[in-house]
Amino acid sequence: MDIDIVSVFPEYFQMLDLSLLGKAQNNGLLKIRSHNLRKWTHDVHQSVDDTPVGGGAGMVMKPEVWAECLDELLNLQDTQSAQAQDTQSQNTQNLPILIFPNPSAPLFMQKDATELSHANHLLFGCGRYEGYDARIPEYYRAKGIDVREYSIGDYVLNGGEVAVSVMLEAITRLIPGFMGNPESIVEESYTGADALLEHHQYTRPTTWRGISVPEVLTSGNHAKVDRFRRDEALSITSEIRPDLIKQLDCHKLDKADRKTLMALGWEVSGDHPRKNL
């Protein structure tokens, strides 16, 4: 997968050379390039922002600078003839998916990470200040580019670099060959058809500072261990993220699942569980 990142702080992404992301690049699984947006400015101050139209606090990133940058990275050129426009439209099918973090956008979910992990090329744009001019994604959508805007949560950051890093972690670890043990992805939170928070994890020693791991985990009975972990995942999810329980498909729950959910105060009937009043 090819990944391009545009930022006014491209050095921030040196951390992507570490750990599994670094190994994936060394193995040729990923190719990550970061670009300094200021490269596409033409004034002595390398300005990338201006005051907001209509007034207000802060500064907004200018569309002209972003357009010159994105046109080059997307290999887009102004076209005049209808034939040239048709050719450009066909060529956009091979262009990267353009992604902007935006606190006002839809929430980035595991399903989005899964979908994007199958892409050949991603291009991330990191906003700063009060954000980027809203006409930027509008313009490139009109050009036939697949433009995505995502929020990573209900809070505001200083810039898009952290959000891009979060999305990159979620996306790249799903690429075949990225993780040493692919089975670990299947067992984690938010994966699979029944998205649940993960059960608690323990390691040795089995007793530490007077606290022992649940006895069933040392029993050697794999069926009981699996059931214990499943029940714990249901319990944790019910307490912390009941919205995920409400999304479960009742038709896919086994008898033990139903028993556990009913004990937790859920009515397991119809298509999805409902919390008892």
TrEMBL record:
SUPFAM superfamilies per UniProt: alpha/beta knot
Keyword entries, A-Z: Cytoplasm, Methyltransferase, S-adenosyl-L-methionine, Transferase, tRNA processing
Subcellular location: Cytoplasm
GO molecular function: tRNA (guanine(37)-N1)-methyltransferase activity
One Pfam family named in its UniProt record: tRNA_m1G_MT
Residue ranges of every copy of the tRNA methyltransferase TRMD/TRM10-type domain listed in the record: 1-247
Membrane-spanning intervals of the chain: none
GO cellular component terms attached to this protein's record: cytosol
Positions contributing to S-adenosyl-L-methionine binding: 127, 152-157
Gene Ontology biological process terms, A to Z: tRNA N1-guanine methylation
Enzyme Commission numbers on file: 2.1.1.228
Top-level taxon of origin: Bacteria
Reported function: Specifically methylates guanosine-37 in various tRNAs.
Family indicated by similarity: Belongs to the RNA methyltransferase TrmD family.
HAMAP family, per the entry: TrmD
Protein name per the record: tRNA (guanine-N(1)-)-methyltransferase
The species this protein was found in: Gardnerella vaginalis
The encoding gene: trmD
